[in-house]
Amino acid sequence: MVKLHFQSNPISVNALYRSGKNNRRYLTQEGMFFKTQMAAEILMQPKSSLTNITYVHIMLSKKIKGDIDNYAKAILDVLTSCGIIEDDRFISRLFIEKTELPEDIRFQLALGNDHEPVTEYKDY
Q1: CA-CA distances (angstroms) from residue 40 to 8, 57, 113?
Q2: Interval 56-87: pLDDT, tens
Q3: Domains of the chain, earliest start first
C-alpha cells in the first residue's frame, strides 16, 4: 500500500471540467492548477511500488466543504493523468470519507491492489 498526503485543497469534478460548445468538456484554469499542484506534491513524496492499483481510500479533511463524491472523480482523474493509476475503470474498491487530519494536510490517499490485505489506513 502507498500513502500520499496533500496540502493543497481538492476540487470537485464540477470545478475541474466545464462544458463548452457542442457539449464538449474542457479542463478549467482551476482544474489545470489543481492537476499541476497535485502532480508536484506526488513527485515530492516517497513512493514504493505503484503497480496494479485497484483500490483507493480518500480521506478528506473535515474542513473541506461540499459533496464528497464530487471530489473522488477529480482526484481519480488526476491520478490517471499523472500515471499513478492506469485507468480509473480498473479501480474495484473506492472508499471516501471526511475525517480529522493534521492541520497542514487537506487530503490523504491510500492506494493498493487486490493482493494486499485491506487494513485500517489511518496513521496520523
Answers
A1: 10, 20, 24
A2: 999 999 999 888 988 999 999 889 888 888 88
A3: 2-112 (3.30.1330.70)
